[in-house]
Amino acid sequence: MEPSEKSPEMLVAQGLKLVGELSSKFHKRLPPGYQLDDLFDIGQDALLRIIAEYDPARGEFAAWANWGIRHALLNWLKREEIRRHSPLTEMEPDSRPTPEVIAIDSERGRQIREAIQNLPERQRRIVHATYWDDETQREIADESGISQVRVCQELKQAKWTLRRVLPPDIYSLAAAA
Asked: pTM of the prediction?
């Protein structure tokens, strides 16, 4: 018996091909130090969530999966960039941070936390859910009782506000999160 076009087996096969293509495309554009296997793993994890949430009534699987996998890869890369460029992660594994490094990171973190705390409640919840809880806009929309489009608008408004109130070097760290 041949699997149907919408069967889980076909979705997995189609999705894995897409994960491979997108991982390769992203990897070619990245500086040295990023592993293709890491990107592929992130894409596979995203694919599993996408297949579980896929509803044929919402559109073609390929478009749905393409967007979800790209989104997962970009989110991971943003977090990885912050991790790699934080003074605390640039130290030798067994060394202790100097008071200067702790002070710089503490001050940056304080400024970012303070700016986020001053956002309107809904924007603050959306920023937290997006960057700390790693929730998708769809998950946030479902939990908040608003549309996914509204979540996107609120997130953009929050970023615009943060860009306005944070110094440029601090905002670039916060925006990469």
From this structure: 0.51
